Structure formats: C-alpha cells, structure tokens
Amino acid sequence: MRGIDAIRLRPLLACATVLLLAGCQLLPESPFAVPAGRTTSELAVAGECQAEVPDFADKPCLLADWAAFGLASQRGDRAWRDAMLARLQGRASERRLARAVVLAWGSEGQWDQASELYKADLAAAPAELQPLLRYWLNELEGRRAMAGRLEGVRGELADSERRRAALEEENADLAEKLEALTAIEQSINLRHQND
Q1: Which of 23-27, 59-63, 82-86, 143-147 has the lowest mean pLDDT?
Q2: What is the pLDDT of residue 193?
Q3: Which residue has the higher pLDDT, 126 or 38?
C-alpha cells in the first residue's frame, strides 16, 4: 500500500517543485487579468480620480474624490483648512457639503456649522454619495455628543471643586471657633481654680 501512495504523490511533488522554482511565470496571465471595464477603484489607483475639490459632476470618480477629500480634511492642518474654506465659498450644494467636510475636522466651534451644512444639503447629493456623507454626519454628531458630555463632566467637576473649597473654608472657620471656645473654657476653668 505504501508503494501506491508514493507513486501518486510523485507527480504532485514534481509539479509543486517546478512551480516553486519557476515562480508564477509559467502560469497563464488570463486568469489574473483585470476585466476590460474600469471600475472606480481602478480609476483612483491609476490617478485619474484626484480632484482637489470634489464635485457632483464626475460620476466615475465621485466616491473616490469625496473619500480622498475627507481624508485630506482629516489630515490637514488649520492653515490647509482655512485656505480650503476660502476656496469653497458659494451656495452650490457640492460647495456647501465640501465646506461641511472641512469644518467637521476643524475646531469644536466649527462642528455646529458643519452639522447644519450636512443636514441642509445631504438630500441634494447624488444617491451613491449620500451613505458616505450620512456616515460622516453621524460620526460628527457622535463627536459633538461626546464633547457635550465632556463639558458636562467638567462643569460637574468644577461644581464639586467649589463645594469642596467652600467646605474647607467652613471647616477652617469652625476650627477657629472651636479654638476660641476652648480658650474661653480654659480661661473659665482657671478662674474657678483660682477662686
């Protein structure tokens, strides 16, 4: 029985050895070839979807351009955001939504404005872009809620610090009064002992 197993394994081991030594050069190219139709991700990889300011017009690059713009907004510094906000002036929905993306990664003071812009113009965006914009809006609302909770905790902490300081002051006043009463009591006791 062992001889039969060795005979069956020999061709398999030979093929594996040939593939290891030759690499993938012997394999046909067609099973790994990319289909003729180009997808959005292929356009993005090829560098054809690289609009600095995204719009709604370029349908094949719509998601890639907006996602790249969102990443640039997240990674950009204050100077980049300020320069981009100056470029994004206008009343068009795509400009307002692009401003919302930039403002969403700005300071906490800009988050309210970003949320308002998202909510006002989200419906005007193309249907294939709306889920991404809605995700960004939800993420922004989560950060706003977290900042609100943090501000509430800070307020509570400041209140407890004020209460603690007031209690310490009251404790110090009571300690002074106790010392004064103790001194009076000692004085009275000394008088009684002398009498």
Answers
A1: 23-27
A2: 84
A3: 126
**Across residues 71-95, what is the average pLDDT?**
93
Does pLDDT of 95 surpass 60? yes
Distances (CA, A) of 139 to 63, 128, 129, 136: 18, 18, 16, 5
CA 135 to chain centre: 11
pLDDT of residue 155: 87
Task: Determine contact, residues 85/99, Cβ cutoff 8 Å.
Answer: yes
Q: Which residues contact 120 (CB under 8 A, 6 or more apart)?
A: 96
Closest residue by Cα to residue 153 from 91, 97, 145, 74: 145
Select from 18, 63, 24, 15 the least CA-distant residue to 43: 63
Q: What is the 3-state secondary structure (H, E, C) of the chain?
A: CHHHHHHHHHHHHHHHHHHHHHHHHHCCCHHHCCCCCCCHHHHHHCCCCCCCCCCCCCHHHHHHHHHHHHHHHHHCCHHHHHHHHHHCCCCCHHHHHHHHHHHHCCCHHHHHHHHHHHHHHHHHCCCCCHHHHHHHHHHHHHHHHHHHHHHHHHHHHHHHHHHHHHHHHHHHHHHHHHHHHHHHHHHHHHHHHHC
